[in-house]
Amino acid sequence: QVQLVESGGGLVQAGGSLRLSCVAFGSSFSLNTMAWYRQAAGKERELVASITSGGRINYADSVKGRFAISRDSAKRTGYLQMNSLEVEDTAVYSCNSKGYDYSLRRPFDSWGQGTQVTVSS
After folding, report:
1. CA nearest neighbour of 76 among 17, 9, 27
2. Closest CA to 63 of 21, 107, 93, 26
3. Which of 12, 21, 25 is nearest to 94 (CA)?
4. Cβ distance 42 to 114 under 8 Å?
5. Are strands 77-82 and 67-72 parallel, antiparallel or unpaired?
6. Could you give the CA distance from residue 2 to residue 29 in angstroms, rounded to a whole number?
């Protein structure tokens, strides 16, 4: 079973930066899409950014020009660099990854535990 572990959340002032990381653990698997979602209090979860194994990237309009998603396939790690943070970016950020688990011989769709990002004014 592929598990995702996130790190890098915290408290930052508006205009500041944070970098989130998401590491995938498992015995034998391939990663296709890695994505970051967020859910603010009282709101629905939304896609922030995604990146495929081929490098195709997609961003939510609200973060374009401020956030950058990347991945290091050798390290099985995805990153979300968040710059010019705004109070409205405050949310729990969760990593999601889809791919194929060779040990279980089936596709997987895994989520991390989530990390809190709080932006103060």
Report:
1. 27
2. 93
3. 21
4. no
5. antiparallel
6. 8
| C-alpha–C-alpha distance, residues 107 and 33, integer Å | 12
What is the structure's pLDDT at 27? 86
Burial code (b: 16+ CB inside 10 Å, e: under 16) for 58-97 equals: ebeeebeeebbbebeeeebbbbbebeebeeebbbbbbbbb
What span, in angstroms and rounded, lies between the C-alpha atoms of 96 and 80?
12
User: What's the pLDDT score for residue 1?
Assistant: 87
Phi and psi for 89 in degrees, rounded to 5? -85, -5
**pLDDT (tens place) for every residue of the chain, 121 residues total:** 899 999 999 999 999 999 999 999 998 999 999 999 999 999 999 999 999 999 999 999 999 999 999 999 899 999 999 999 999 999 999 999 999 999 999 999 999 999 999 999 9
Give me 49's structure tokens. Answer: 């950014």
- For the four alpha carbons of 58, 91, 113 and 77, in that order, the dihedral sign comes to positive
Backbone angles phi, psi at 62, to 5 degrees: -70, -15
